[in-house]
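Write out this protein's structure.
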Amino acid sequence: MEPKISPMKAPKYPILIVEDDEDLSELIKIQLTDLNFSIEQSFNGLEALEKAQHNTYSLIILDVMLPGMDGFEICKSIREDDPLTPILMLTAKAEEIDKIMGLEFGADDYLTKPFSIRELSARVKALLRRAKASENSTDSTQEHIEFGELSIYPNKRIIELGDEQLELTSKEFDLLLLFASNPGRAYSRQELLDIVWGYQYSGYSHTVNSHINRLRSKIEHDPANPLFIKTVWGVGYRFTEEHELV
């Protein structure tokens, strides 16, 4: 059994805090250090990206407004090479477009300033639990799922289309694995949000649409006439069944 995250027994998860407000960064560091997390700090976007690309972190807390490079671009760049590390984005703006952009670039959660340190700690713990649960569930899934030319290796988080290995983001992989593990089942956009993103993203069904479109562009020979991910009009989406591939 994995140890619970508590002030006395938490493992030393390395967390990168990227926040140019040094007072806020220090406050976050103090709180998470008290919870026995290992903390690194960065106050500049370019420096933060370099750290993220050359080090391994259990979680990255990423402000949107940063000198050098903004948080959206950092998130996007990280996701090009690292689809798995959880990213919690912070912003002083409450507009919906910022949350949508964060989700589109691959953020796992989103917190709007001002926020309570207790809320931040809860989000951090939830993201780490979710990452561990995802790792454990992946370990327990079958080693290989195959539909026609499409091969999915859940344990390795590898996707192949014919002889080509595809580059998928974390959410794209999670969507595809969910679909392929349940062929024929129709999911509404809200169900997909709840399962893949979590309840806090209720109402952002257009995020699902854009991820489906990008996923189709990667796995379908003709995205306009998809073979694998079918649209169920008035409901949402479903994955093809074996007999439909013949």
